[in-house]
């Protein structure tokens, strides 16, 4: 959703994983796992090749977060989780069975589990726990914790429930091994993605708080939970600040995925309600040490404040090779207004990307043309080969153009382009039963106006939406933007209470079970799902299953091409743009490895605080702190 646009493009984002595993390794214990080939680190993985294994620990990392928070339970629909907690994965508090790689796509390395295996028919997966794994209270992480976590997350987390839809149960087969059973064979991703399970402390959640009240994992809470990861909550001010402290005896500190990483002693997150105030906080120093920038205007024109000129703030661009997300206006088909494909296509034509890129974004952006942008999974040209074979089964249920025309979005490259594309939009609306009367687009039968609201929560939404709104008004469509606070926004998005939002959906190089959460008919009715457009299409459902049960990589690529093409030609969203770079500005208090992971662009967890630099900055800018 929109909230996620400012988050770093990182492999730590709750990435969707799926693909093919090699049957030749069935029933053999595996450590590092990959869905798209062998990991470059192999079985002798010591540490990531970009980290400084001797990076010093210490110092405080300060960060500003927009909005507020009211819960330390990120796995339920209710509440706004505090910074450091995530709805998918473990965040700063919990470890997962395996940890997703920071510099390779669809690859994981051991964490709580030191190995896993699966049978040749992919009907189950067994994970073996590292005997050293423990909670912050010193108790061991057990198979009971794993099984309970699986049950709780599948029952209460919208993302995990669909991610593990085909996982029926988990049973302990020894004091260190948990076997997960699947209700369908041949789902080649499931053995791998079980490793993404966040493991929660059963004994803590089933215990009582300081007042003797029994805890409830299905409800929000502001009692700091027991964790297992490198950090724990040290202090907080409800809604305004949370401070995390590094655990000095963290059990996994010497594992390959952790060496040279998680170096800050303290991570302090300060909440600020609006973007302008957050910007001012960064320029003054003391509250925000690293700023991931997503504003083209700000990147181009605002970085001239005194600390930049003095060399105390560094502005740096990191190229990325990870898949690009689909950022778009998500048209909520739960609203009858957007039920007609012709209408949705008509809404696509007034979006003038080229003028926006030139006048607002300084030419930094590129138009998004695929839901799988930046990968071999993106469709192109006309369907052929295996992809065509897949689509032929649904020919009578698909737009005829899908088979005869290459999908192309409008390009505003000439002065005449606006008139051309707005005329096409009006023609499409007319075919769908809408006409212009008195300058307003109205239903030809009822006279009802074509009117909708774009829901947003920050200034960037205003920048993105305004040009589209202006062009829509030229064809009589009454579109407006409503900005609300972040908490209200999250709640409304979770409950699909909007006409249109500016959303974002990230993909991996190996799509799989998470596609159900994005596109399936079931997810359309599940609060908290990421089917923002409310898609309910049997063809899409069938293609999602085709991806999940792909027999090999070639089959997966063909099936994903087919899904991409069907999604595009149904115009469920109005695509916007992407940048294949990560923009970071940071106060010069860090030690940074010379190399950073190109897949995610930068791994801030591999940075460390330089005490001398930190002290010098604190003295120089203490009046601003």
TrEMBL record:
The lineage of its organism: Bacteria, Pseudomonadati, Pseudomonadota, Alphaproteobacteria, Hyphomicrobiales. Belongs to the bacterial solute-binding protein 5 family. It is found in: Periplasm. CDD domains: MbnE-like (cd08497). It comes from Mesorhizobium abyssinicae. InterPro entries: Peptide/Ni-bd, SBP_5, SBP_5_dom. This is Extracellular solute-binding protein. The keyword Hydrolase does not apply. Transmembrane segments: none annotated. Residues 1-25 form the signal peptide. The keyword Secreted does not apply. Keywords: Signal. Residues 109-523 form the Solute-binding protein family domain. It comes from the Bacteria.
């Amino acid at each position: 959703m929109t909230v996620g646009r400012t988050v770093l493009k990182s492999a730590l984002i709750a990435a969707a994983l799926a693909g093919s595993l090699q049957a030749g390794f069935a029933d053999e214990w595996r450590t590092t796992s990959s869905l798209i080939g062998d990991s470059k680190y192999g079985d002798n993985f010591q540490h990531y090749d970009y980290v400084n294994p001797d990076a010093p620990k210490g110092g405080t990392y300060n960060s500003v977060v927009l909005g507020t928070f009211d819960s330390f339970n990120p796995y339920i629909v209710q509440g706004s989780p505090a910074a450091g907690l995530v709805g998918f994965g473990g965040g700063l508090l919990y470890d997962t069975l395996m940890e997703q790689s920071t510099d390779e796509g669809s690859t994981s390395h051991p964490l709580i589990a030191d190995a896993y295996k699966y049978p040749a028919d992919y009907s189950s997966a067994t994970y073996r726990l590292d005997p050293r794994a423990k909670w912050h209270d010193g108790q061991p992480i057990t198979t009971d914790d794993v099984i309970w976590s699986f049950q709780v997350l599948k029952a209460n987390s919208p993302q995990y429930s669909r991610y593990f839809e085909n996982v029926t149960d988990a049973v302990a087969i020894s004091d260190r091994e948990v076997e997960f059973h699947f209700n369908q064979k041949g789902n080649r991703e499931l053995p791998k993605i079980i490793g993404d399970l966040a493991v929660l402390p059963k004994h803590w959640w089933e215990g009582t708080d300081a007042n003797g009240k029994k805890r409830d994992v299905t409800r929000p809470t502001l009692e700091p939970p027991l964790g297992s990861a490198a950090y724990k909550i040290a202090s907080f001010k409800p809604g305004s600040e949370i401070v995390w402290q590094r655990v000095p005896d963290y059990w996994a500190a010497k594992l390959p995925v952790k060496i040279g990483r998680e170096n800050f002693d303290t991570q302090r997150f300060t909440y600020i309600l609006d973007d302008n105030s957050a910007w001012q906080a960064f320029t003054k120093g003391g509250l925000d040490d690293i700023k991931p920038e997503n504003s083209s205007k700000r990147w181009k024109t605002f970085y001239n404040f005194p600390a930049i000129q003095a060399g105390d703030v560094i502005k740096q661009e990191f190229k990325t090779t990870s898949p690009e997300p689909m950022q778009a206006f998500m048209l909520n088909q739960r609203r009858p207004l957007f039920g007609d494909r012709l209408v949705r296509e008509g809404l696509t034509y007034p979006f003038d990307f080229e003028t926006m890129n030139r006048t607002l974004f300084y030419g930094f952006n590129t138009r998004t043309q695929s839901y799988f942008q930046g990968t071999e999974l993106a469709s192109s040209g006309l369907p052929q080969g295996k992809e065509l074979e897949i689509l032929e089964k649904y020919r009578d249920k698909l737009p005829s153009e899908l088979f005869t025309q290459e999908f192309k979005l409008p390009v505003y490259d000439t002065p005449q382009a606006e008139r051309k594309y707005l005329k096409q939009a009006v023609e499409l609306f007319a075919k769908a039963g809408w006409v212009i009367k008195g300058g307003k687009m109205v239903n030809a039968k009822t006279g009802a106006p074509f009117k909708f609201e774009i829901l947003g929560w920050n200034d960037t939404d205003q920048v993105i939406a305004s040009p589209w709104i202006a062009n829509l008004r030229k064809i009589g469509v009454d579109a407006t933007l409503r900005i609300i606070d972040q908490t209200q926004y999250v709640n409304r998005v979770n409950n699909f209470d909007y006409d249109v939002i500016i959303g974002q959906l990230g993909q991996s190089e190996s799509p799989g079970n998470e596609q159900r959460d994005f596109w399936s008919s079931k997810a359309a009715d599940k609060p908290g799902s990421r089917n923002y457009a409310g898609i309910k299409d049997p063809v899409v459902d069938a293609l999602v299953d085709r991806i999940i049960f792909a027999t090999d990589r070639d089959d997966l690529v063909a099936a994903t091409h087919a899904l991409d093409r069907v999604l595009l030609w149904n115009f469920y969203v109005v695509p916007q743009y992407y940048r294949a770079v990560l923009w970071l500005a940071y106060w010069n208090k860090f030690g940074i490895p010379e190399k950073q992971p190109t897949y995610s662009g930068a791994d801030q967890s591999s940075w460390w605080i330089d005490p001398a630099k930190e002290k010098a900055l604190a003295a120089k800018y203490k009046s601003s702190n």
